[in-house]
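Practice problem: predict the structure.
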Amino acid sequence: MANPALILPVEAIAQRLNADPEFKLTSQYWYGDIRFVIGDEKYFMRIENGKVGSFVHGTNGFDPYTIDIVGTEEVWERMFEEVPKPFYHDWFAASFHHDFEFGGDLESAYAYYYSIRRIKLIMGEEVRATQAARAA
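Answer:
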């Protein structure tokens, strides 16, 4: 298996989310587990009372998740562009128009959808910063 080109900087993303006033406000009282799958790479984020309790790359095979966000590496890369093209700008839109899935406990996902959108925004910023640092 080839090395993936897109690796999420999990520590930087968790720190940014926990320091982000918009995320704090919109995720208050939220408890949940999200699985992100980028191609073959799996990531698990635990939200505890509106804060990222943990965010890890990899799996032990028994990781819990209630919300599932899955796509090809190509779709994720397009979603993380500074100005994504239409239907790459949002998890839900991408699930209707591209090789992408947004599923699981949709009642919880919709209740905290602004928080989930904020996760995407901060992920994209951190991925672009990491890629720029590597290129320099």
